[in-house]
Design brief:
The structure is a single chain. The protein is α/β, with parallel strands linked by helices. Among the domains are: about 85-270, Rossmann fold, CATH 3.40.50; about 275-305. It is about 35% helix and about 20% strand. The protein has helices at about 20-25, 75-85, 90-95, 115-120, 135-150, 155-160, 170-175, 200-210, 215-225, 265-275, 280-290, 295-305; strands at about 10-15, 30-35, 45-50, 60, 105-110, 125-130, 165-170, 180-185, 230-235, 255, 260-265. Helix 7 (about 170-175) runs parallel beside helix 9 (about 215-225) and helix 11 runs antiparallel to helix 12 (about 295-305). The chain starts with 11 loop residues before the first strand and ends in a 6-residue tail after the last helix. Bound molecules: S-adenosylmethionine. S-adenosylmethionine (SAM) binds near residues 110, 130, 172, 188 and 189. This is Ribosomal RNA small subunit methyltransferase J.
Length: about 300
């Protein structure tokens, strides 16, 4: 079932003569059959395409308006970014930090088209990709499988894909119920499209069409702040407000690039800030405050729910 947290609920169709890969997903993705003569601009369907000069069979979301969108980690923009993206010095990577000189394990809670996860995995990070849209997740699974099955891949490149672990799930639920330690949660939610903004890239346009803005990022951030042991990193457009959270925690630092800001919530820094006051003091002031003000009672109650009150 499609998640109800995203704004749009676009149906994905399948044509009678669709490729085998798409046919195999027909039931799981609840694809509706589409006669060829019904095609129009706002329809999306699942099929395979073979990019020029290749013999690949890539699962793609197709539309008349945008053409096919598929994921290929070994060619095009993703491969270019791997080679020329700036390595360990790029803002995304710096935002992840290091634990005792080793790379932390990342949970990418908004995997999308996998670009950020791929950058991280290609630089040595172990990345768990979480994507709740079954459509987008199917494209990711297809791209990962194709990459792993590519003949003659060198061992270094193969290792990148072995470090990428995909789950089609809602991240807030996954994180809340995860029995294992999570070091870093990374979030890059879809934000509402601005009318005046230059047209988004083709991949993002597709996500905007079939998924719409993510309206529940606050819930995801709440769970991430409760669970992450090292840091939470949130990608935001430059100038955008921070994402709210139930604890009223502000980012402890940020890494900026020309169009993007990575808000960092360092768990150690947050714990240090909070250790300035201890629970005893809070209870003392709570008793006093009870006598005077109802609003203080509310704020003390909130403090008690704080994830770092230990
Ligand atoms: C802006 S895109 C992320 C792009 C990604 N960083 C990349 O490099 O391709 C946001 C994606 O996060 C997914 N998403 C948002 N909230 C989620 C949640 N709570 N659980 C799982 N996926 C989520 C959306 O379905 C969408 O595909």
């Amino acid at each position: 079932m499609r998640s109800m947290s995203s704004a749009e609920n676009t149906t994905l169709f399948i044509k009678a003569n669709a490729c085998t890969k798409a046919q195999q997903l027909k039931e799981t993705l609840e694809l509706k059959e589409l006669p060829d003569d019904l095609l129009h601009d706002n329809l999306f369907w699942l099929d395979c395409i073979t990019p020029k000069k290749t013999d690949l069979n890539c699962l793609a979301i197709c539309s008349l308006q945008q053409g096919p969108v598929f994921i290929d980690f070994l060619a095009g923009k993703k491969a270019h970014r791997r080679q020329f993206g700036g390595g360990m010095g790029q803002p995304l990577v710096r935002a992840m930090g290091k634990i005792d000189n080793r790379l932390p394990r990342i949970v990418d809670a908004t995997a999308g088209m996998g670009s950020d996860s791929f950058v991280l995995a290609s630089l040595g990070f172990d990345v768990t990709l979480l994507e709740r849209s079954p459509y987008v997740s199917a494209l990711l699974a297809d791209a990962l499988q194709r990459a792993l099955e590519t003949a003659g891949l060198d061992s270094q490149t193969l290792a990148i894909f072995q470090r990428m672990h995909l789950h089609n799930t809602d991240s807030a639920d996954f994180i809340a119920n995860c029995p294992d330690k999570i070091e870093v949660v990374y979030m890059d939610p879809m934000y509402p499209e601005k009318k005046k903004k230059a047209a988004a890239k083709k991949e993002m346009q597709l996500l905007q069409h079939i998924i719409g803005p993510d309206m529940d990022s606050e819930r995801l951030l709440n769970e991430a702040l409760k669970k992450a042991s090292y840091r939470v990193v949130v990608k935001r457009p430059k100038g955008a407000p921070v994402i709210a959270n139930q604890f009223n925690i502000a980012p402890t630092s940020a890494v900026s690039s020309p169009n993007t800001r990575y808000d960092i919530y360092s768990i150690d820094a947050l714990k240090q800030k909070l250790s300035i006051c201890n629970k005893r003091q809070a209870i003392k002031s709570f008793n006093l405050a009870c006598l005077h003000s109802r609003s203080i009672i509310v704020s003390i109650n909130n403090l008690d729910k704080h994830p770092y009150w230990k």
